[in-house]
Specification:
Elements lengths: L1 E4 L2 H7 L5 E14 L6 E12 L7 E4 L5 E7 L8 E9 L2 E9 L13 E7 L5 E7 L7 E7 L3 E9 L1
């Protein structure tokens, strides 16, 4: 059954899907000391990260005891071709989550700092739980099978550094 929309937690984790541009600010040169030669070398530029925050929503589902729920994944503006499905099976004390994804691009298309994808379970209260790393194959398909003790959550996939 659908429960409350998750806004604040998704705002935090969708941040990882948003482009982060690496810029350099012009600042006064600073000095650094190398331990081997004890010489000071000026640092001309200091890296600065600029982050654009984008909010998204998803539904959290309450997975009943001893039931099976099928979920469809759909892409976002950043990856409209992405799709997949998840199967959540309830058993005593835990839920088994099996995920199959298609058309999943390499995370590096969002920037060179993105190296992997992570599947998250977000509770209605906004708590995020890392369910595992998704490693796309060359054909864009990926699978993950995990268990969790959470009973109500939404599933999202993010690109991570």
């Amino acid at each position: 059954m659908p429960s409350a929309y998750l806004r604040s937690a998704l705002l935090t984790f969708v941040l990882a899907l948003v482009s982060i541009s690496l810029g350099f600010a012009q600042q006064e040169p600073t000095t650094t000391t190398t331990p081997s030669s004890q010489e000071a070398t000026p640092m001309v530029q200091t890296p600065v990260y600029r982050v654009q925050v984008v909010g998204r929503t998803t539904r959290a589902l309450n997975y009943r005891h001893r039931s099976t729920t099928n979920i469809e994944f759909q892409g976002t503006k950043l990856d409209p071709n992405g799709k997949g499905k998840a199967k959540v099976e309830s058993s005593t004390g835990r839920l088994h989550v099996s995920v199959e994804l298609e058309n999943l691009p390499k995370p590096s298309i969002y920037g060179p700092e993105y190296l992997t994808c992570v599947l998250w379970a977000i509770t209605p209260e906004g708590r995020a739980s890392n369910l595992g790393e998704i490693v796309p194959k060359k054909d864009g398909k990926a699978e993950l099978s995990v268990t969790t003790d959470l009973q109500a959550f939404g599933l999202i996939l993010t690109a991570e550094p």
